[in-house]
Amino acid sequence: MLFKETDLPGIGKKFSVITGNKEKVAVIIHFSGKREIYFFDKNDFDEPACAFSLNEDEAAQLGSILMGTYFKPEAQDEKEMFMKNLVIEWVNVDSGSCMINKSIKELEIRKRTGTSVIAIIRNNETITNPSPDEIIKVGDTLVLVGNKEQIKRFFETFYPKCNLR
């Protein structure tokens, strides 16, 4: 990608980018905060095929989308706090498990550990949001969600001899 920065006296700066696909985009950032974005056809870098303007907030939002970090400021802190406490764990049910041939309800997984079974992977098929009456079978993979303590409690309850956690 080719990148060029040019000072525009009395206006601001111009940034021109030519991508690996030979497409050109130019961005003019005014001292006022206004942004003008110009798109050019591959065969004509002199006259823009399309142009639009953004204010500072719109430009910041578009930039975060392009960077893959789009966020809504008022909800971001809540999402980060929620995600820090969220753990998703995959648990393989082997032939020695005490859970075999018992339902989620019978095992009282949520009541005893606080974790929720959000899916069961069985024979290359996924049962999402399984019913409490779903019977756990040998070879199933349980997908659990909870916080770290709840996941730890799950292993202490259903895999007490397992010292991995």
From TrEMBL:
GO molecular function, a single term: monoatomic cation transmembrane transporter activity
Domain RCK C-terminal span(s) in chain numbering: 76-160
Pfam families referenced in this protein's UniProt entry, alphabetically: KhtT_N, TrkA_C
Gene3D superfamilies in alphabetical order: Regulator of K+ conductance, C-terminal domain (3.30.70.1450)
Biological process (GO), any one: potassium ion transport
Cross-referenced InterPro entries: AAE_transporter (IPR050144), KhtT (IPR026278), KhtT-like_N (IPR058776), RCK_C (IPR006037), RCK_C_sf (IPR036721)
Protein name: Potassium transporter TrkA
Annotated organism of origin: Sulfurihydrogenibium azorense
